[in-house]
Write a structure and sequence with these properties.
heterodimer, A: 233 residues, mainly alpha, MetI-like fold, B: 241 residues, 0% strand
């Protein structure tokens, strides 16, 4: 990648530079698909890793009430730190690679997931918990069989929000050359302001985010059939 | 490998602060872009949000807009607006994109702030013979101040954070330090990258903290007390249970 300064606006006056070009897409199909695949895989990895960290943390907040405030505050502070700064903290120590991006993305996804999972858990009605206790469920059994399933809508909301923002945030990875579809935008900016490259990257990115959102929402509906029935009745 | 040391050295060099395009210039530019974007976002979102809240319509539009902007990468929108050439070619070309990302929190909070006013209070105002506009000005708006202020704070923090990305597109702001550092490769620019990260993160946290205090003080006293007593009531209820 080139860091030869910022792109100049000057273009040959007669050079065609359309916003959308089949020619561009055909010429660069392989590269576009590679970036799309990287974007998809990295997003899934980041969200999966964030889930593995966030859901236990949310349960911890739920069980040990005094821990909720500091954990939420800490993830809130992390969330306030601009993405570029976070990558700047990580890059000197972790290097220029996917790992830096993944760590950053996971840290950002944490807050959204912890918050929503916790909200989901706290929404479990006290009577339900009483009934479960009466049926002889212990703390872990109740969590696994009663509370987590009932918190699923909140958990799914958290995953959806985290996924959509991860897809968008990944483009900032261009700073270490790992921006997925963001690389299309980057190369567009740095090769004569190629509008077709920039718009292709942008549209694919938004489409990927919305598509993943729909898929996760669909999975969420499948795993919470009772929520649908309640709406239907 | 001692990047922390290099970062401290870099921050300690007075020339890095006072040079043309040094930290102070970048900071000034960063704050100007942020302020302009926040102004534009507020000018658009506040009237619409207040009107939506007052009329009770537009809740769906508010949610849809905020979902849509979440899916658009800031970097992409910055690039598109820059290349479209609607605005200048300098750092100010970031203003429209940043303003768009500042709109959802202001809009949503203004809407919620007006909507959450107790219907009984509204009834009372109407019973006193207030017109719709009078009710908005004397009852709904004052009660919505904490929400509106919180929305502007969220937007400001978000804009000050994303303004860093302006450096990736047209240059400008504190992001320049990080971007230029990466241009030197990590081995050479690692300290500068880290220093830039520290400055940017500090600025974001500082803006967040300062505006938190501002929100507290612009909240009318009775509402502040109410919130505190509500918290106390909740704590008492929790202890009783």
């Amino acid at each position: 990648m080139s860091f030869a300064g910022w792109p100049a606006r000057a273009l040959p006056a007669d050079a065609p530079n359309p916003w959308f070009s089949w020619h561009y897409i055909q010429q660069n199909a392989d590269q576009i698909l590679t970036y799309l695949q990287f974007h998809f895989v990295t997003t899934i990895e980041a969200v999966a890793a964030a889930m593995i960290v966030a859901i236990p943390l949310a349960v911890l907040c739920y069980w040990v009430k005094p821990l909720a405030a500091p954990i939420l505050a800490l993830s809130g502070v992390l969330y306030t730190i601009p993405s570029l700064a976070l990558f700047a903290f990580l890059a000197p120590f972790v290097g220029v690679g996917v790992t830096t991006i993944l760590i950053g993305l996971v840290l950002y996804a944490l807050l959204l997931m912890i918050q929503n999972t916790l909200t989901g858990l706290r929404q479990v009605p006290e009577e339900v918990r009483d009934a479960a206790r009466g049926m002889g469920y212990g703390r872990v059994g109740m969590l696994w069989h009663v509370e987590l399933p009932l918190a699923l809508p909140g958990i799914v909301t958290g995953i959806r929000l985290a996924t959509v923002s991860t897809v968008a945030l990944l483009t900032v990875g261009v700073i270490v050359g790992q921006g997925g579809l963001g690389q299309l935008i980057f190369s567009g900016l740095h090769t004569n302001l190629n509008k077709a490259a920039i718009l292709t990257g942008t549209v694919l990115c938004v489409a990927l985010g919305l598509a993943l959102d729909l898929v996760i929402a669909g999975i969420g509906r499948l795993v919470t059939p009772w929520a649908r029935r309640r709406v239907a009745s | 490998m001692n990047f922390i040391h290099a970062a401290i050295l870099w921050l300690n060099d007075p020339l890095n602060w006072t040079n043309p395009n040094g930290i102070l210039d970048d900071l000034r530019e960063h704050l100007v872009i942020t302020a302009l974007s926040l102004l534009v976002a507020s000018a658009i979102a506040l009237p619409i949000g207040i009107w939506f809240g007052h009329s009770g319509r537009g809740g769906g539009v508010t949610v849809a807009f905020s979902n849509m902007t979440r899916a658009i990468p800031t970097y992409a929108l910055l690039a598109v607006i820059y290349v479209a050439g609607i605005t200048g070619i300098g750092a100010e070309s970031a203003v429209p994109a940043l303003a768009i990302f500042g709109i959802p929190p202001i809009l949503a909070n203004a809407y919620t702030g007006i909507r959450q006013v107790d219907p009984e209070v509204r009834d009372a105002a109407r019973g006193m013979g207030m017109s719709g506009l009078q009710m908005l000005g004397r009852v709904e708006l004052p009660l919505a101040v904490p929400y509106i202020a919180a929305g502007i704070r969220t937007a400001a923090v978000q804009i000050v954070a994303t303004a860093t990305l302006a450096a990736l597109v047209a240059g400008g702001g504190l992001g320049d330090i990080i971007y230029a550092g990466f241009g030197l490769t990590i081995a050479v620019g690692g300290g500068q990258i880290l220093a830039g990260g520290i400055l940017v993160a500090l600025l974001a946290l500082l803006v967040n903290g300062v505006l938190g205090i501002v929100v507290y003080y612009v909240t009318p006293k009775p509402l502040r007390a109410q919130r505190r007593s509500r918290r106390r009531a909740r704590r008492l209820a929790a202890e009783a249970a």
